[in-house]
Write a structure and sequence with these properties.
With about 220 residues, the protein is mostly helical. The chain has helices spanning about 1-15, 25-35, 40-50, 75-105, 115-135, 140-145, 160-175, 185-190, 195-200, 205-219, and strands at about 150, 200-205. It is elongated, with a radius of gyration of 32 Å. Keywords: Cell membrane, Membrane, Transmembrane, Transmembrane helix.
Length: about 220
């Protein structure tokens, strides 16, 4: 009998030394007991509860400033045609300014952005998109003709930071021939976003669809 009792004691000792594996049915009770071993005031308990609450709460995404049905977003080809119109407008502005300066001998033509002519032409290109998008409610001349406009999912009106990143930095990057592939994602995703749209959380919508929807709702 003494041998059996010794074996039982050794087994119990081994169990105590072994780490707990799997769910512990007494876990909640152990937590309560730990509070008893380390006495806490009600204020301290409430403080810990508030601190730990963040680990159990589900995070709700903030509502978007603009969120449209997927068929409201302007497709790749209508945006491409609007872009081509914008290029014609930029070309006309460049010829009226730099072309005159070139004919007068003030500037020498150069494709390099490091030259005065190339750098000024780049400024005209970027300023056209930045200023019109900001001050004309997301519309360049091409977008006005085709009835589309840039919108932000986070802002009611496009901020300077959004416009500078989308129409400045991203437009400059997408100006290079190989990097123009950054426009292609607008063909495949539901919100018709290209590379610049992904960076600024923007897209382009068709104004006539919004007008038609508003008229139907108000009628």
């Amino acid at each position: 009998m003494s041998e059996l009792s010794n074996e039982n004691k050794e087994q119990e000792k081994d169990k105590q030394q072994q780490p707990a594996v799997g769910p512990d049915s007494n876990f909640s009770q152990k937590v309560l007991n730990s509070f008893e071993r380390e006495p806490l005031t009600p204020e301290e308990i409430n403080k810990k509860q508030r601190k730990w609450k963040k680990y159990t709460d589900t995070r709700n995404e903030p509502p978007k400033a603009n969120d449209f049905p997927k068929y409201f977003y302007a497709g790749f080809f209508i945006r491409m045609f609007a872009f081509l119109v914008d290029l014609l407008c930029i070309g006309a502005i460049t010829r009226l300014t730099l072309g005159i300066a070139k004919n007068l001998g003030w500037l020498n033509f150069s494709d390099s952005y490091l030259s005065l002519y190339g750098f000024t032409a780049l400024l005209i290109y970027l300023a056209y998109f930045i200023l019109l998008t900001k001050f004309n409610h997301g519309q360049t001349i091409g977008k006005m003709i085709f009835g589309i406009r840039v919108i932000s999912f986070d802002e009611e009106e496009l901020s300077w930071s959004t416009v500078l990143v989308r129409e400045g930095a991203c437009r400059f990057i997408l100006k290079f021939p190989l990097l123009m592939l950054g426009y292609l994602p607008a063909i495949f995703n539901q919100k018709k976003q290209h590379l610049g749209d992904f960076f600024t959380n923007t897209s382009v919508v068709t104004i006539n669809l919004i007008k038609a929807f508003n008229q139907e709702v108000n009628s």
